[in-house]
Amino acid sequence: MSDGEVLAAIEQMEAWVGQGAWVPDPGALEVWHTGFLAAMETAEKGPGWVDLMARAHAVGRLLEAKTGQVEQVYESIKSDMKAQEQGLRALRGYGGTTR
Predict the structure, then answer these.
(1) Rounded (10°) CA dihedral 45, 2, 40, 32
(2) Is the pTM of this model over 0.90?
(3) Among 1, 3, 74, 95, which residue has the fewest nearby CB atoms (within 10 Å)?
């Protein structure tokens, strides 16, 4: 591969995405992304560059899929919480108690 730092960043993302229960941490992703961009700027772009970029794009697609899954879970939880809130308001309106 043409640049070890780019490869290391891609391998880190592959490891994260490969974890079944991994939930992307925005702060960690931001630090990773900054490092990845810096590594890309200084990369040698030698003979293995095309393969390295194909690998980066593949892990990017996996990350997008994982992010989509997290967003679906978030929306489901948000919907459940909204329904519970409405139920509690209804109970208060009827003079019921919740304990």
Answers:
(1) 160
(2) no
(3) 95
